[in-house]
Design brief:
Radius of gyration: 19 Å
Structural class: alpha/beta
Strand content: 25-35%
Shape: globular
Number of strands: 15
Number of domains: 2
Order of helices and strands: EEEHHEEEEHEHEHEHEHEHEHEHE
CATH superfamily of the largest domain: Medium-chain alcohol dehydrogenases, catalytic domain
């Protein structure tokens, strides 16, 4: 079977095509014939030499990235009870296991949910990582209808889901975007207010009026997010660990969150998508090939991606 693997950490060019024997599922695993996946920050960070320099152990190479899986079950282990061959599924795998950049991959049944007929494989391939990150960030912040929520980069992968899911919770949603061309996209997703942060000072506009910040960017954007929080506010970052000293100084709570697989939440994301209450924002579609993945990773690293980059493996439906 074909797969796109990393042979050593470094530039995007290290993604190369390899040929592997089709894997066999273990007792509690399923074998998935892959139809789609996506490029997510976790997949890109595997290539980052800075991770290795910081002391984080490198992935064993060759390593197949791709934390998102979407396809049809081809085989199941003896202990699998929730799924059968022919089921259309999608889900999120741990970064240490991954494997989505391949024609076939293995997954554990607790990492998956059934894909409804009304959701395309392309949509299912972009939902899990970004959608679960947004869902779980809003849940961790206990967002309610009375809250004013600021989503940093509301037209990015996680941000675009966070804007929509916060609106579904009844919150007032403000978001930042990186240019005027993104304003209409943000409003189309349901934002009540969109701020071009490249030209406007977010803190000067909002003051300390925000109950919850969902940060999807990190760095300076994360540090500056504290200034807009009202006393007792909550900040959840899906990009990096917030500074606890800044949180204490501002009198707010702050935490870092990485998404975890959750079959119920996956099913709810799919239900909302099938019912057209949630719109996955796809920022590009590339094939499962060396050139396709290298281009997709470079686009993701540019920071100019709108939504989530989709990867098609079998383009039939």
């Amino acid at each position: 079977m074909k797969a796109i693997a990393i042979h050593m950490p470094g530039p995007h060019g290290n993604l190369t095509e390899i040929d592997l024997r089709q894997p066999a599922p273990g007792e509690h695993e399923v074998l998935i014939e892959m139809y789609a996946t996506s490029v997510n920050p976790t997949d890109c960070s595997i290539l980052d030499e800075a991770r290795i320099a910081s002391g984080e152990p490198p992935a064993a190479c060759p390593f197949i990235p791709g934390v998102v899986v979407a396809g049809i079950i081809a085989d199941t282990g003896a202990g699998v009870s929730r799924f059968k061959p022919g089921d259309e599924v999608f889900g999120l795998e741990p970064a240490s296991e991954s494997g989505g950049y391949a024609e076939y991959t293995l997954a554990k049944e607790h990492e998956l949910a059934l894909k409804p007929p009304g959701v395309s494989f392309a949509a299912a391939g972009v939902l899990p990582a970004a959608g679960l990150a947004a869902w779980q960030a809003l849940a961790a912040a206990k967002v309610a209808s009375r809250d004013r929520v600021l989503v940093q980069n509301g037209t990015g992968g996680t941000g675009s889901f966070a804007v929509q899911l916060a609106k579904l919770r009844g919150a007032t949603v403000i978001t930042t975007v990186s240019g005027d061309e993104e304003l209409d996209v943000a409003w189309g997703l349901g934002a009540d207010q969109a701020i071009n942060s490249s030209e406007q000072d977010c803190a000067a506009i909002l003051g300390q009026s925000i109950d919850v910040v969902i940060d999807t960017v990190g760095g300076r954007v994360l540090s500056r997010s504290f200034a807009v929080l009202a006393p007792g506010g909550r900040l959840i970052s899906t990009a990096e660990q917030p500074d606890p000293a800044l949180a204490a100084q501002q009198g707010v709570t702050a935490a870092y969150l990485t998404p975890a697989a959750d079959p119920y939440q996956l099913s709810e994301l799919a239900r909302l998508t099938a019912g057209r209450k949630l719109q996955p924002l796809i920022g590009g579609v590339f094939p499962l090939s060396e050139e396709g993945l290298r281009t997709a990773h470079a686009l993701s690293a540019s920071g100019k991606t709108r939504g989530v980059i989709a990867i098609t493996i079998i383009d039939k439906r």
